[in-house]
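Training component of the fellowship. As part of building independent skills, the fellow (R.M.) carried out the full modelling exercise for a liganded target. The chosen ligand was tetrahydrodeoxyuridine. The inputs are recorded below so that the supervisory panel can assess the work.
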Amino acid sequence: MKKNRLRALIDSAKHARQKAYCPYSRFPVGAAVLTESGRIFAGCNVENASYGLCICAERSAVFNAAVHGERGLKAVCVVGKSPRPCGACRQVLLEFSTKETDLFIVDLGQDARHETIIRTKVAKMLPLAFDPFEAGILPPNPQNLLQRRRSPEKKPRRRSAKKK
Ligand code: THU
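Fellow's submitted model of the complex:
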């Protein structure tokens, strides 16, 4: 990805982080996704008194993109103090990712003044992910991009039972 595009993605996530509603955790997180059309959509974590209803910044960004008719993800960025996409977010991100979709984890450090960037792939964050193709639950005319995100990931080898 071009440097200035990555800069825009990080800045968008940082900006969204300022909007985080996190009175319970006091842990603001911002996220932004770059879609295949080249647009950027941001999200922040939004918490709730009923803790289980809190939503993470990453899902909030993906859903924001979906609301605008955008699904395919080129890159995802999350910004905070050592943020890490949770398991739920990894599965949700994967829905609209390909095996090429980049993930940038931007750690602002404890003083929130630094930027340490971990670059990886969304697909790498969830090995053995639940796959609707393998599970055979995808409708015949999926209105999404799953076809393209099929990864050539190797199937796990099954150990044959040893005869004694
Ligand atoms: N959180 C995110 O939004 N994204 C992450 O990558 C890590 C955690 C949120 C969830 C919750 O509102 C708060 O951070 C503390 O867990």
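The panel noted the following from the submitted structure. The beta strands are 30-35, 40-44, 73-80, 102-107, 116-121. DSSP finds five helices and five strands in the chain.
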